[in-house]
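COMPLEX REQUEST
Ligand: GLP
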Amino acid sequence: MTRFIIARDYEDMSEKAAMLFLKQINKKDNSLLGLATGSSPIGIYRNLIKWHKEGLLDFSAVKTVSLDEYVGLLVSDPQSYRHFMDENLFNHINIKMENTHIPNGLAANLETEVAEYEKRIEMLGGIDMQLLGIGRNAHIGFNEPSDSFATDTHIVKLTQDTREANARFFNSPNEVPTKALTMGIGTIMRAKKIVLVSYGVNKADALYKSFFENTNPRVPGSILQYHADVTVVADRAAMGRIIDEGMDINCSI
Ligand code: GLP
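STATUS: Structure written out below.
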């Protein structure tokens, strides 16, 4: 089932989504959280850091698994997702670094790495709450539009659209890696709860197609219609097409 929370703006979206994570951690202090990168989750992490500093959140028992990582970037590279997660969250809270898991895009054997990552998630007890952003082409993690849904963590060739969208973070478009490691659709769907955040008009089609058209691997986000517990937190612009087309949504503001 999908529940929609319409936010006023980016700040409101970030606070509302962060609140869901606060509740999750307060309910289960050793939760396994699935985390995401991109510009959408940054505000959530800012709120979590703030609440931690105010003494409202304790991450000492929390464990995390990240959705994805580029292949071939050094951990020290500002564009690596390990660097992103350290800078935007982990360095500012009391999480134990050994409890933060990210696929290793520098592993000598990437096939072994993805298989082991999948096993690790299972051994950690499965994901309690997974945070997702969504790409313009409705990719989730780095699960790009394809002919079939990839189930487990795997190596993926990035589409031109995704590389162009992510070029804004790099000095030049050529520097955007061509491959990444990503949790699969199955990995994501096995999470007990999913929180998807999205803002801005350029996500309006991706959101609409994901939740109001037939499920299709060409629209990876559309698989989420089959998950039992999804909360979409999005601003008015990202919800624009869904609202304009008068879709019947289970919604709160
Ligand atoms: C990247 C990430 C995705 C993310 C997407 C959207 O491609 N791999 O997990 O959802 O970007 O990013 P943004 O939130 O910046 O639009």
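REMARKS: The two ends are 18 Å apart (CA to CA). The CA atoms of residues 123 and 206 lie 33 Å apart.
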